[in-house]
Amino acid sequence: MELQHGSFYFEKSSVEAEEIDTINSLPDDCLREIFRRLPIYQRLEIEKVCKRWKNIAETSWHDLKHLPFLRFSNGKMDSKTINEVQKNPNLIKKIVKRCGHFLKELKVATPCDPDVLSKAVNVCPNLNKLTIDVGNIECRTSRCNKKYFLRKFDLNLERFMKLNYLSLKRFSSESNLLKSIVANQKSLTHLSLFYCKIDSENLELITRLINLEALQVTHSIIDDNWLRKLIDNCRKIRHLDLSHSTFLTDSSALHLEELRNLESLSIQASRKITDRSLMNLYRLRELNCSHCERIQDPGVVKLIRNTNLTFLNVFNTRITTRTVTEAYVKWLTMGEKAKEIFRIAVCVSVQSSCRNFREAFLPLDRETTRYENISIFN
């Protein structure tokens, strides 16, 4: 077989021709299975080979129900696709659109034009888990800036009636996205707003999500009135992260005990809350109150006596060796499995005062523990 290119002639061996014929002689189902095993971005490339391959390739996306577009491969997406997406972010739109109604979960934390992403996501009505880190959503033209796109980055959440998990990082409430969250108030159970700029109007909308089980609102302007309203309306909450809430006080935090299902709580760097608000949280399994300068021994000691507690981050608070002693006494009574998962983080100065404790207990205060949050939001 001879192929002409310019003034050159290339002769394709009969073996190569036979191999091509062998591939093309395969039935559609076999080719589709082969295409499914290619790196994701190559599924787009093979559409260019011929019309038949294009038709088959376009029907080979039903197996992709979870797409994590991260800066680095995490084992759930091949590294070649991650690299190609970083070089050409528009690939996200093509890949997401191919998955269409098959897609259940989408995570985007790699540079991408927000307009492209908005259009792509809106063709996936069966999404139930959506994570977007807007800190990595960026403009690819010289005529606009990131702030402009934060205002213009809108998703029509009313279409996603199956959405139960939404996580946004470094978002701005100037977008209309949060206003459409209320349309999903029956299905949405997990909402994470990390380091988002949210005005009072949008914050109020959150308190209407009556089926919430996990809520993270950090670095925001939430106040006591907002928290009281949340507690009154959202009784199913099990996991709550209100880190860096500088306006919250005991006036509202004392009512956290009314959340009968509350298992994990983070009030990290919420500096006006005292340990009085912790005393009656008997059901807590995890607590992060690091960098809360008004947290002292009495409330924490009482909390430690709660048999459910397995994680306590009191780094950079005003607790003393009294708290560590109480934790040590509790640890001694635990079974072997419970001892393995129990973790506590205290200041270096407090730790150095506890050298008389059994050596096996000291590793519980690992250096990394002080940077940990409650597990669901780690």
Automatic annotation (TrEMBL):
It comes from the Eukaryota. SUPFAM superfamilies: F-box domain (SSF81383), RNI-like (SSF52047). Gene3D superfamilies: Ribonuclease Inhibitor. GO terms for biological process: SCF-dependent proteasomal ubiquitin-dependent protein catabolic process. SMART domains: FBOX, LRR_CC. One of its GO terms (cellular component) is SCF ubiquitin ligase complex. Residues 20-64 form the F-box domain. Keywords: Ubl conjugation pathway. The keyword Cell cycle does not apply. The keyword Transmembrane helix does not apply. This is F-box/LRR-repeat protein 7-like. It comes from Fopius arisanus. The gene is Fbxl7_0.
